[in-house]
Amino acid sequence: MTTVPTGSRARTRQAILDAAVEVLARNPSASLGDVAVAADVGRTTLHRYFAERSDLITALHALADERLERATARARIDEGPAVAALQRLCREYFDLGDVLSLLFRDQVNCDEETTVCDEGFEELVRRGHTDGSIDPELPALWIQSLLWSQLYAGWSYLAEHGVSRHEVLRLVTRSIGGAVRP
Amino acid sequence: MTTVPTGSRARTRQAILDAAVEVLARNPSASLGDVAVAADVGRTTLHRYFAERSDLITALHALADERLERATARARIDEGPAVAALQRLCREYFDLGDVLSLLFRDQVNCDEETTVCDEGFEELVRRGHTDGSIDPELPALWIQSLLWSQLYAGWSYLAEHGVSRHEVLRLVTRSIGGAVRP
DNA sequence: CCGTAATGGAACACCGCTGTTCCAAATTGG
DNA sequence: CCAATTTGGAACAGCGGTGTTCCATTACGG
């Protein structure tokens, strides 16, 4: 049986994952050596935790999915006015930062992400359609694409221009809100 | 001196560039072999036209910049109401397709792209700010990020879901228009 | 129709990344 | 403080992409 992580093991594992998120978000084809350096860990150690590159990627996706789910839960998208709920979701996702750009760059069509949202998200959009706060011409799937792409735009904007995190978040939520209005 | 392209040379060169756009837009780290196959050309021939990978990339950027500039010119962003001009620009860029996703994926902050637009684009946004058709809270740079990210979202949407080009374009222009409204 | 240009295939060395093994050093916990 | 765990460095083979050379074949223009 696998030994229970003795604390040190868990810490190292997390350090590697964090570094991998940061490095691979910027350059999806970065080498494992780069990740190891960023994690301040020997390449040997990295291989000890994740035998193959694909194992690391898998763990990364699991981590991203988990955080995505938590963030979705925190946004309570089934409560209150639709647009406000959409903007709460936007805020929560924005805080995930690099973690989501990972999913975004690999495959926008990520099977997970669609299913993660679809139950509640479609319902949210439907709510907005019926109460007139969301343009009925815009399907839920498109609004989801919009949300993701604007988050991406926000992160890029943050990284490239000297603008505060708070200010960027303001721009994104405002733009998302405006884009879905009828 | 380099011999003047005899027609056949120019055709081959163009075939390689077209294939490179298609292949590299989907996977920026695709091999030159993949590009050669897509161009229906031997790898040797490809190397004959572009000695190094970086030479191909450079040519690709030049091609993208040129088409970007033409598209910008066609949109006549200095004419008419600001939002309509923005939507014309959106339409023209949308038609560039893969060519622009290339620039987008490599570096959203592409030095070229900012300078290409900045003269006219900032003016367009200013026009919208003063006549009240564009939310004055949104800076030109952000609107530009928005435009690009929504185009990207549109292309992805087109590729992944069975939606017509025309329909996607409608969604993008509508969303862009909505996003910048005060 | 002949010669030149253009092409593609094969083979080659080179390089960086990957995944593995082995061993010595450092850390940690009891 | 000792022993087990954890770590990192070095070295290695394998692999795929790169860039080059050489040669035979094909296409094209005068």
TrEMBL record, chains A, B:
UniProt-recorded Gene Ontology molecular function terms: DNA-binding transcription factor activity; transcription cis-regulatory region binding
Alphabetical list of InterPro entries matching this protein: Homeodomain-like_sf, HTH-type_TetR-like_transc_reg, HTH_TetR
Origin superkingdom: Bacteria
Domain HTH tetR-type, chain residue ranges per copy: 10-68
DNA-binding positions: 31-50
SUPFAM superfamilies: Homeodomain-like
Signal peptide: none
Record key words, sorted: DNA-binding, Transcription, Transcription regulation
One Pfam entry name: TetR_N
PANTHER family membership: HTH-TYPE TRANSCRIPTIONAL REGULATOR BETI, HTH-TYPE TRANSCRIPTIONAL REGULATOR RUTR
Protein name: TetR family transcriptional regulator
Originating species: Actinoplanes italicus
